[in-house]
Amino acid sequence: MSSQNEEDPTTLYLRNAGGPNEGRYRLGLDHLAWLIEHCTRLGALRLELLRGLQAALPKSDDGDSVTELKELLTNLIIMQTRLADREASLHDALRRLVDDGRLDAVFLDEELLREAIQQIIDAPTRVRSVSGGGI
Can you tell me the distance from the alpha carbon of 62 to that of 60, in angstroms, rounded to the nearest whole number? Predict the structure, then answer.
């Protein structure tokens, strides 16, 4: 096996945040709480992006693709807003559970988690490339 210096950050994160267990990945609860909080912040950004897109769409006639998109966005915005309220409650309850120590880990699909962690790791490269003049 290669040294830690040669391993990619995703593999290192997964090794330190939990580990394989009976065909699943065992993720520590504190890492789960951070990932949920991270996803919640991204969800808030997603909601703002959807609102911005909806506001930027031109006026249109009934039945065209813009009208269809506006209706879809309206429904998504309503649902996302409701979810945002519930996610705040989830965050508080999850923090209490972490603090209580009554649960220490959850079992997840490792490949899905690996892909998500890799996207988190790749995000700064994307931001740096755009801030440095574009892609």
Answer: 7
Cα gap 123→3, rounded to integer Å: 25
* Calpha distance 125→102 (Å, rounded): 38
How long, in residues, is the chain? 135
* CA–CA distance, 42 with 50 (Å, rounded to integer): 12
Give 58's DSSP letter.
P
- In angstroms, rounded to a whole number, what is the distance separating the alpha carbons of residues 82 and 8? 37
Question: Model pTM?
Answer: 0.80
Q: Rg for the chain (alpha carbons), in Å? A: 20
Q: What is the DSSP letter of 36?
A: H
107 with 31: CB under 8 angstroms?
no
- Token readout for 57 is 């769409």
Return the axis-axis angle of helices 29-56 and 65-100, rounded to nearest 10°.
160
Which helix (H) or strand (E) element contains residue 107? strand 105-108
Q: Which residues pair with 27 in a beta bridge?
A: 18, 106
Q: What is the pLDDT of residues 8-35, one digit of tens each?
A: 999 999 999 999 998 899 999 999 999 9
